[in-house]
Specification:
This protein has a single domain, classed as Divalent-metal-dependent TIM barrel enzymes (TIM Barrel, Alpha-Beta Barrel), CATH 3.20.20.150. Helices cover about 45% and strands about 15% of the residues. The chain has an eight-stranded parallel β-sheet with strand order 1-2-3-4-5-6-7-8. It is built from eleven helices and eight strands. With about 270 residues, the protein is an alpha/beta fold.
Length: about 270
């Protein structure tokens, strides 16, 4: 099994085309993105049709990069409603996992990190409970400029969110590219610090400088073998998706990555 995210092919507006590109590249599982899937699969009937069709193509579906714009301070109820719709949509498709992010720096509007921690814990607890009720797990993806890229903040946040919820209900996404940019000298050590809070991987190479430039494996400056070794060191037991978002040659990059992604899954003991 090898999974890639639909965001790799975000320049293609057609669902069918993206799915065929994924299969042609050698992948057999897809992490679904908001555009174009969320906008086009508008009804439960269309979602059921897509699940059936994807299965006929030999393509399994897992994970939804919901990309709800998170504003828990001034637009709490609107944001929560956006998550509720995303959860219902992901549940219809039986995607198993909802991916989000914490607020962008501009949304914090100069608030103290402690205040942000309190408000985001309260807010995302509601999101997590909604996910659990729908049979989904919630994973949050730190970006180079979000508070969750600060390990101490992220650890307190995830631990607080997990209280009282089933094991594995909430976790972090370790995105190799994002950690390479956000923590260029500590991206490997952070794996041990974060430990079992890491429950999903966006695996790619990166140059440790360029925001969101997810490169094919071997094209950047990340020590990918050391990342895999560190993940083995924490007994990583989560899931993995190849990510080539913003790479300008996604088809070629995906074809090059498929075999190695399978090897990395094997090295980590990932089965699905």
């Amino acid at each position: 099994m090898a999974r890639i995210n639909a965001l790799t092919f975000h320049g293609d507006p057609e669902i069918e085309s993206i799915c065929r590109l994924v299969r042609e590249a050698g992948f057999d599982s897809l992490e679904v993105s908001r555009p174009p899937f969320y906008e086009k699969l508008r009804t439960p009937a269309l979602r059921r049709t897509f699940v059936r069709w994807a299965g006929e193509q030999g393509l399994s579906l897992y994970g939804f990069d919901a990309w709800v714009e998170v504003e828990p301070y001034e637009q709490r109820e609107q944001t929560l409603e956006g998550f509720r719709h995303a959860v219902d949509w992901a549940s219809d498709l039986e995607l198993g996992m909802l991916i989000s992010h914490d607020p962008w720096p501009g949304v914090h509007a100069g608030r103290d990190p402690e205040e942000c921690l309190k408000i985001n814990t309260d807010f995302f607890r509601q999101v997590a409970e909604c996910c659990v009720s729908a049979g989904l797990r919630l994973v949050v993806e730190p970006h180079p400029d979000t508070l969750s890229m600060r390990n101490a903040w992220a650890i307190r946040w995830i631990d607080a969110l997990r209280e009282g919820l089933p094991p594995g209900a909430v976790g972090l996404v370790y995105d190799c590219c994002h950690y390479g940019v956000g923590q260029p000298d500590r991206y490997i050590e952070s794996i041990a610090e974060l430990g079992d809070r890491i429950t999903h991987l966006h695996f790619s190479d990166g140059d440790r400088q360029t925001y969101a430039l997810h490169l094919p494996l071997g094209d950047g400056s990340l020590d990918l073998d050391a990342i895999v070794a560190a993940l083995r060191g924490i007994g990583y037991a989560g899931t993995l998706t190849n990510d080539l978002y913003s790479y300008p040659l996604p088809r070629a990059g995906a074809r090059r990555n498929a075999v190695r992604i399978r090897q990395i899954e094997s090295d980590l003991g990932i089965r699905g």
